[in-house]
Amino acid sequence: MVQAKSWILTKYFDGFPKDSNFELKVEELPEPKDGEVLLEAVFLSVDPYMRPFSSVRMKEGDVMIGTQVAKVIQSKNPAFPVGSHVVGRCGWRTHTVCDGKDLIPIMPDWPQDVSLSLALGTIGMPGLTALLGIEEVLGLQAGETLLVNAAAGAVGSVVGQIAKIKGCKVVGSAGSDAKVAYLKELGFDEAFNYKTVSSLEEALKKASPEGYDCYFENVGGPFSSVALQQMKNFGRIAVCGSISTYNDTTPQTGPYPHLTMIFKQLKMEGFMQSRWEHKHPQSLKRLIGWLKEGKLQCREHITKGFENMPAGFMGMLKGENIGKAIIAV
């Protein structure tokens, strides 16, 4: 019998998450039946989406939602041999018994010198979000100017690099000088610390006086209101996240963008990468190709220890990470 640890959501979040929202539980797992596998988590992901999704996809007392890279340690399913690695939506658990239906095997040609944790980041959901947002939602073209906020995060950092691969001018906003320095390392044309500029409007104008063709939105709130004013006519906006609003107890209100959208004839579209699931295998191959060619750089913020998952999650929501926030068991 295997002892499995899991983190439970004891009470829905009210404002910013607290330690008291989580409880560590231990249970004995049964032996896998025919067709089942026993997984052991190696790396777990903490992502901004978990905060808003927890209130619509979970009940109090459920195991926290999330994705992990896991090793198959027992198998009664020939598709998943012992010792192989998979990506699974198993939640915040150290061990899981499952039938393998929703498991994605790590691609067979995964490079030996690349950490499997990247399957939760640049070569995983955040990388797919960046690539599909750019190509399917924005239709970004060479020579255009792209604005991305939360640009040093798991998604934003990949967005900027793909836009550079496509021959675009890239402007990034981030929340610390260290993050801005990282964006410069990645080849962003312009980058600024939104917390220290005297005027966001002036910073955006200075970075691209002619305005922006495309805006990859990760933040929402007041930043969005200012950024929309800087769009070119017929500009396109991909709404991926709204992290500035996730922990609000009272919803933010206005200013409202409708007149700006009408006058500038803007197109704004919300999206999730799961819409293009049929494109995932090919898209992951493209991402890993760019990684091998040195065109994509990855940075991870690794928290060690399953017991530290809530702290890693809350740290990510505070913006403590540069690149992808990962828990290493």
Describe the structure in your own words.
The chain is of the alpha/beta class and 329 residues long. The protein has helices at 50-57, 125-138, 156-165, 177-185, 200-207, 221-229, 258-264, 280-292, 309-317, and strands spanning 2-9, 22-29, 37-45, 68-75, 85-88, 95-98, 104-105, 145-148, 169-174, 190-193, 212-217, 231-239, 267-270, 300-304, 324-328. The strands form 3 sheets. Strands 3, 4, 5, 6, 7, 14 and 15 form a 7-stranded mixed β-sheet that branches. A 6-stranded parallel β-sheet has the order 10-9-8-11-12-13, with helices on both faces. A two-stranded antiparallel ribbon has the order 1-2. β14, α9 (309-317) and β15 form a beta-alpha-beta unit.
Poorly predicted runs of 5 or more residues: none
Shape: globular
SSE ordering: EEEHEEEEHEHEHEHEHEHEHEHE
Tell how many strands the DSSP assignment holds: 15
Judged by helices, strands and strand pairing, the structural class is alpha/beta
Distance between the termini: 20 Å
Gyration radius, rounded: 20 Å
Largest sheet: 7 strands, mixed
Average pLDDT reading: 97
